[in-house]
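Posting here for the record, re: phenylalanine.
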Amino acid sequence: MGNSDKLKSDLLAMVEATTTLAAVEEVRVSALGKKGALTDAMKGLGKLAPDERKAAGQELNAVKDAVTQAIDVKKTSLSMAEMSARLMEEKIDVTLPTRPEEKGCIHPISQTIDEVVAIFGEMGFSVAEGPEIEDDCYNFTALNIHEDHPARQEHDTFYLPGQGEKGRKVLRTHTSPVQVHTMMSEKPPLRVIAPGRTYRCDYDATHSPMFHQVEGLVIDKSANMAHLKGVLTDFCRAYFGVDDLPLQFRPSYFPFTEPSAEVDIGCTREGGEFKIGHGDDWLEILGCGMVNEKVLENCGIDPSEYQGFAFGVGIERIAMLKYGIPDLRTFYESDLRWLRHYGFSALNVPSMTGGLSR
Ligand code: PHE
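Prediction output follows.
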């Protein structure tokens, strides 16, 4: 038997003896790799006389082809064997009951904001945004709340350090500065709501240092108090799902609206049970009024041509009322049991046609 025949039968025997894909790969490297036996033999061809070289070269090429083919065949059969072994092992019992799904849910604050946006969206309002870190001017001065105004103290403001009296930054104490941003950057007519975070230094069962409001602003040539009443009545009836919900507008005071009102909705508190709707009692839920002429002027809008109304609603407050959540602090505790109880399905997006909350 010639050298190449011996090499061939040795290599083929080695391939044949393998039982794993890794072993086949080892044989491949030892035969055909850079330092492999066949590669070595081919390198030796250079030393032969030219007439011998040709025949020997052809023989070695034939060996290479045979070994390569044997390796391919072996690899295919081993990987098929491995696959069928795995399939035998990984049996799926399709009769097993499914695992209860761990599902996330929508936080009542997000849900309430989505509901409010859906209702006002239907009325043609768009959503406006503003920064949570505000200039003192946007949060107070432009809204007609001057340096010595008592509302500055009432708002329990968080001031940011490092700035002088005039240029200081504050965490916005209400969403009303978004009114100012909107009036300054857009041309009337305007119809926006601005939901978002607000901050006041206060903490108990009904106050949190961070809470949410939604602001509303309408500016055009004829918007009046009757429109304000209509918009807020429609909103409250849609939001609380009570078609004949009575509203009461009580005169009040805000520096940025004139006249101003606080709005109460009808309720009953019979036998310790609280219910929203027709009744003998009232519950305050929001502040509103006609935008003060001084505010329009501060924002570059001519009060002899334009007028409008604004309102501000506490998101937590209306969420607590609608969903019977007794303590405001629980909104921010991230207690999973609470979230599962009060949370909403992510698939039921609130809408006026499909329903606000299901
Ligand atoms: N910004 C007021 C507050 O936080 C609410 C309000 C907004 C009142 C707009 C009137 C008009 O209490």
